[in-house]
UniProtKB/TrEMBL annotation:
Transmembrane helix is among the record's keywords: yes
Compartment(s) where it occurs, according to its Swiss-Prot or TrEMBL record: Cell membrane
Protein name: G-protein coupled receptors family 1 profile domain-containing protein
Higher taxonomy: Eukaryota, Metazoa, Chordata, Craniata, Vertebrata
Primary localization class, coarse: membrane
């Protein structure tokens, strides 16, 4: 039986959580307080990054490659804040109402945006290294390097975030499930992607 047939089965989430984590009861009051604090922190992160993006967009002095990298970092951090708010709101009791597809999208967006943030930092480091060591600065015809680095950040991040939904998961094999992320496979040796 194909694992993809189980992607819309709502009971799969509860089955996997009960198998990997047991049926644990958490205090809903403390969870609500902690969730509220994290949502407030995420809102601050979103607002800070909106200010950075507005500064880069409105100020002509910031229309250079380095500031586009910083803008990309701010954009990925802004999306990370949004993804975590969605993740928090879809956690707890709501988790058991999700289909595996919705669960993969919830977790995948968080992983994608976090990976994009980390890869944006890597792209900034690569660009600084090339600019300092090779003394290659940007001109209008050299923006290709910037576009390739920023594009690579997002493509690699989307691949990482999308692996579980395209098959790197344990829907068909409970013994291979991760304890932290119950639908994610611990390794890929027995799972078939596509």
């Amino acid at each position: 039986m194909s694992i993809y047939k189980q992607y819309l089965n709502v009971s799969k989430i509860t089955e996997h959580y009960n198998y990997t984590k047991g049926n644990k009861e958490n205090s809903s009051t403390s969870r609500t307080i902690i969730s509220s604090i994290f949502i407030i922190i995420c809102c601050v992160i979103i607002l800070e990054n909106i200010l950075v993006l507005i500064s880069v967009w409105r100020n002509k002095k910031f229309h250079s490659a380095m500031f586009f990298f910083i803008g990309n970092l701010a954009f990925s951090d802004l999306l990370t804040g949004c993804a975590y708010i969605a993740n928090i709101l879809l956690s707890g009791d709501t988790t058991h109402k999700l289909t595996p597809v919705a669960w993969f999208i919830r977790e995948g967006t968080a992983f994608t945006t976090l990976a994009a943030s980390v890869f944006s930092l890597l792209a900034i480091a690569i660009e600084r290294h090339v600019a300092i060591v090779k003394v290659k600065v940007y001109s209008s015809d050299k923006n290709c390097r910037m576009i390739i680095l920023i594009g690579a950040c997002w493509v690699i991040s989307m691949v990482i975030g999308g692996l579980p939904i395209i098959g790197w998961n344990c829907i068909g094999n409970l013994d291979e499930c991760s304890t932290v992320f119950p639908l994610y496979a611990k390794n890929q040796k027995d799972n078939k992607i596509l």
